[in-house]
Amino acid sequence: MKPLSKGLKKILVFTALVSVISIGYYIYALFVYAPVEENETFLSEIGEGFGEIGLWLLLFIYARTLIKLLLGKGAMSKRILPEYSPPIDPKQFNKLIHYLDRTHIYFGICAVAIILLHIVLMGIPMNILFFPAVLILVIWQGLFGMFISWKYSPKELKKFSYLVHAQLFTGIMIGIFAYLGHLLIDD
Ligand code: HEM
User: Fold this and answer.
1) Which of 41, 73, 145, 172 has the fewest CB atoms within 10 Å, i.e. the most exposed one?
2) Which residues, 6+ apart, have CB-to-CB distance to 147 below 8 Å?
3) In a 3-state reduction of DSSP, which class is residue 111?
4) CA-CA distance, 45 to 41, in Å (whole number)?
5) How high is the pLDDT of residue 187?
6) Are residues 166 and 75 in contact, defined by beta-carbon separation less than 8 angstroms?
């Protein structure tokens, strides 16, 4: 069996570490904080809908990344899977990838806006650290995504923004924190 690439190893170790620390914090939060009741107001009902849409948008955004990884397309796939060659001809999917790349900015902006609305409308308990962390990470993705795309960004800022935006680490944290955070909320 081929050894795992450095990039992939980093991602797996990071995921394992964040999972272990987060589960530890989840158990701590279970004992320290009173069970969080879900609000049943008109606004929170709407907020719930936004949460669901936000989740689907994130899944769509990372599906694009996964498709590019599986087809060996893009800078990220060269970084994470340098020796991988796809079993199918990736040229067949050029149109799809082009469409996904062109629309990413719009799906990205929608995802950030809808997740922020979800957080505001639900009145999420910010003393449980999972929630402010997700908020910061979502704003982080949106902000640096905008710096990559904005034509007036200085070259250095663009480079830095690409480095911190086009990676999977924030997505892994958003997924783990949001999942465990929601487990702490009674419904
Ligand atoms: C929560 C929201 C977002 C997430 C999770 C996200 C995630 C990602 C990921 C994983 C990549 C690199 C891998 C890939 O090619 O698929 C990427 C690339 C990129 N993102 Fe985002 N993004 C978000 C929002 C945004 C926003 C709001 C913008 C711009 C306004 C943006 C602009 C870009 C650009 C320009 C690239 C690099 C070029 C490309 O691969 O298309 N992103 N994003």
Assistant:
1) 41
2) 153, 157, 158, 161, 165
3) helix
4) 6
5) 60
6) yes
Q: Which two tokens stand for residue 24?
A: 């530890």
Cβ–ligand 1 distance for 23 under 6 Å, the answer no
Average the pLDDT over 95-111 and give the result: 97
Of 163, 147, 10, 179, the residue nearest 81 (C-alpha): 10
Which is it for the CA torsion 123, 124, 125, 127, positive or negative? negative
Alpha helices in 123-154 (DSSP H): 130-149
Q: Which two tokens stand for residue 73?
A: 């397309």
Whether the per-residue pLDDT at 2 is higher than 90: the answer is no
Containing H/E element for 159? helix 155-165
Regarding the beta carbon of 129 and ligand 1, being less than 6 Å apart is answered no
Answer whether 97 contacts ligand 1 (Cβ < 6 A): no
- Token code pair at residue 70: 């599986």
Q: Are 113 and 127 in contact (CB under 8 A)?
A: no
Q: What spacing in Å lies between the alpha carbon of 114 and ligand 1's midpoint? A: 16
Residue recorded with tokens 């990470």: 137
Residue 40, pLDDT score: 85
Amino acid at 82: P
Domain segments of the chain as ranges: 6-23+38-186
Which residue owns the Cα nearest ligand 1 atom 3? Answer: 108
